[in-house]
Amino acid sequence: MAMFRNLPLWLSALVWAFLPYTFTPQIEILSIPVESKDCLIWILFLYYGIVFLFFANPENALHTKSVYLNLPAYVSALGFYAAISMLWSTCEGKDRIAMAYTMANTVLTFFAAYFIVAGKSNLDVARLVDRLVWFVSIVGVVYFSESYFSIGLRSTEGRDAAIGEFGIQRVHGPLFGAACGYFLLLPAIGITLDKICVNMNRFALDLAVLLALIITLVGMGSRGANIGLGILCVMFLLTCREQGKRVFLIILLFILLAGSMLLVYSKASSEKVSSFEDTPREDNYKAALSIVSSSGLRCLYGSGYGSVWAWYLPDVEDGGALATKRFYVPTKYGIMLYNPHSILLMLVVELGVIGVVFFVKLIQLPILLLIRSSISGQGTGMASAMLASSVAYVLDFPIFKYWAMALLWWIFVLVTLRGLCNENVR
């Protein structure tokens, strides 16, 4: 029965991971082009919402306040305020409909993940997260194989766009991009470390999974990925109670990382990841700071969702923002990126105090996870990985844009929150 209930999730994950964008049809809703793969979010939300409401065992639907840190309330409040803020936002016409659609998708993504996790038994949750980690690692191997060996899975345009300064195709695919894929991979690495700590009987399998995840991470050529992996290692070293296993796992991570780097950089250039200069992002931050500093009291309630970065239509129309030369947008505050490329920037500039409150909640998650894991002595790998993946809050925009990846990330987060309140989730 559990396998049947999980079938929509796995079928959706396969589509998200392996159906190329060039083969993904668009549909029009209220004159807005919508990627058909995104519609799977709505289907999962409805399906698992019905399963949760009518079929879930009440004992499995743990209290939201104590276990999930009121996340459903925070996400709902953010979505509601974003909708209200569009009353004074300068985002108009098709852009307004399009941006309302993006926030609706963001909210539905969270609740789809919430319904998937909250209604399951401890055993079902444990099996789900195990299989999800394996799935992410397999996807990573496929993406890495295409990038490193050029086995012909990508179009010519996709291959050329992925090379840049890195020298080879940066590891990416339909499920996650090269710039922010670490957002999903780091939690999978953390969970694998925890599995090795708890049970060494499956060491060979977990080692293979860990190698697949790390080599995928290195192959992305992402500075955010490198920073995140460094944070994960440091926090795991500081919080893991079992000294013998802690030292062993840190040495193991170092060996796997060194081997992965030797393999990747035998072909790739380290110039991109060794330099932290990023002029477009710096200009984006400077322009955003100018907007906030010049808005007076208006900065308290924000400029309105979509007013500064109405990114959705440029992203999906006519081949995307790069193809249509809308990637950089000149404004009176300076050159800005069409997309905030930062959760922090969007929340502060467009949603004001409410956005800041939600950002603080996002930061609170890994901190509380680390506190809980240090007290219980369990889940230190995942807690460290959550803090590491929060690098994306500042450098990227995954929760509000890459909904398929965000749904899987939310599953990891919610499972970890539940697991640290219940020792039986393994």
Which oligomeric state applies? single chain
Report strand %.
Answer: under 5%
Low-confidence stretches: none
Radius of gyration: 21 Å
Strand order of the largest sheet: 1-2
- Write down the secondary-structure element order: HEEHHHHHHHHHHHHHEEHHHHH
As for the number of domains, it is 2
Q: Biggest sheet: strands, sense, closure?
A: 2 strands, antiparallel
Helix content: 55-70%
Structure annotation, total helices: 19
Mean pLDDT: 88
What general outline do the C-alpha atoms trace?
Answer: globular
What gap, in angstroms, lies between the N and C termini? 20 Å
Describe what this molecule looks like in 3D.
There is one protein chain. This protein is mainly α. It folds into 2 domains: 2-275 and 351-419, no CATH class; 279-350, no CATH class. The chain contains 19 helices and 4 strands. Strands 1-2 form a two-stranded antiparallel sheet. It is globular. The model has no long low-confidence stretch (mean pLDDT 88).
Question: What would you say about this model in short?
Answer:
The protein is mainly alpha-helical and 426 residues long.
Provide key terms for this protein.
426 residues; mainly alpha; 2 domains; two-stranded antiparallel sheet; 4% strand; globular
Topology of this structure?
Blueprint: H1 2-18, E1 26-29, E2 32-35, H2 39-54, H3 64-67, H4 71-85, H5 93-118, H6 122-149, H7 156-161, H8 182-198, H9 203-219, H10 223-239, H11 243-264, H12 271-274, H13 279-293, H14 312-316, E3 328-331, E4 334-337, H15 343-376, H16 380-389, H17 391-395, H18 398-401, H19 403-419
Antiparallel strand pairs: 1-2, 3-4
